[in-house]
Structure formats: structure tokens, C-alpha cells
Amino acid sequence: MPHSNADERRLTVQWDDPMIGARAAQTLSGLEYLREMADGRIPPPPVMKLLGFEFVRASEGEVEFAFLPHESHFNPIGSVHGGVISTLLDSAMGCSIHSRLPRGKGYTTLELKVNFVRAVLPRHGKLLCRGQVIHAGGRMATAEARLQDESGKLYAHATTTCMIFDAASDPLAKKEKP
């Protein structure tokens, strides 16, 4: 059944060049990078703009994002899609690990385990996602994250294992040949 214009909904997303942040990540420690982003001196990655994640704070080993659920995040049954929630949790955990890395180091997610405790709906209001490092070694790091409303009610939680690597081995760090 076709939709009338009255039913039409739109989402317009604008973002900055993602390579600005990628290049900055090569020259700063993880915590310096996250604080520069939180202060607006480095643009957030496009996925944060696309999904509506807001950077709240970063300290060594801990990062917090805010998220306001919207119908544009819905799955076919009318609640926020688990992939959106998983992306938020993965971002918070990865950034918490990034906050512990010295200049010249990068990370990537190796595994992600998410537990959905209850449905996320726009009526729940702003949710906070806090990622925290559990262990940070030379090659591997683990972290956990919790997605809660402002009163502390839990909606989802997750754990991750990330691999730590030299940023020089990262394809973004390699210069293209002329």
C-alpha cells in the first residue's frame, strides 16, 4: 500500500570527512584523541552522526555515550533494532580500550557478546552507555558496557575482546603510491 506524503518521514545526516579523525588518531594517544573529539576539535565518526550517539565523556579506561532512541532506529516490530544497540555498546567498549592506548597503537574488535535485557523504545528517553576496560594487555584487551536509562534501569549489557596492534600496520596509516 503506497504511503501518502502526510506519512512520509525523513532523516538527513551530515558528517565531516572521516579521514580527519583517522589521521588525528595516528598522532595522539587514545585518551587525547577521545578528549579532542569530545571537545569538538576532531569530528566524530560518521556512524555516531548516523545513529545519533552523543559523546558524553572519556577518562582513562572509561567512556560514556548518550543515545536518544528514535523511530528511525526501529526494527520491523517497532522497537530499537538490536544492531543499533550492539553498535552503541561496541563503540563504548572499543573507545574505553582506545582510552588506554598510547600514541601509535590501534585496536579492532575480535568478538562481541551482547545481552538484551528489555526492549528500547523512544518513550524511555535518553539512555547512557558506559564502556569500561576490564583488562588491557600488550596484544589483547577486554571491556564491558552497560546501556541504562537515567534512573539506572538496565536495557542491555555486553563484553568484548579486542586486538591491539601497531598503528603503522593499519592500512589507514599506509600512504597511497603516486
Automatic annotation (TrEMBL):
| Lineage of source species | Bacteria, Pseudomonadati, Pseudomonadota, Betaproteobacteria, Neisseriales
What GO MF terms are annotated? 1,4-dihydroxy-2-naphthoyl-CoA thioesterase activity
- As recorded in UniProt, its EC number(s) are 3.1.2.-
The UniProt transmembrane annotation reads none
Q: Which SUPFAM superfamilies match?
A: Thioesterase/thiol ester dehydrase-isomerase (SSF54637)
Q: Report what the protein is called.
A: Aromatic compound degradation protein PaaI
* Matching NCBIfam families: unchar_dom_1 (TIGR00369)
* Alphabetized UniProt keyword annotations: Hydrolase
Pfam families, per the entry: 4HBT (PF03061)
Superkingdom of the source? Bacteria
Gene3D superfamilies for this protein: Hotdog Thioesterase
Which residue ranges does the record assign to the Thioesterase domain? 78-154
Give a GO cellular-component term. cytosol
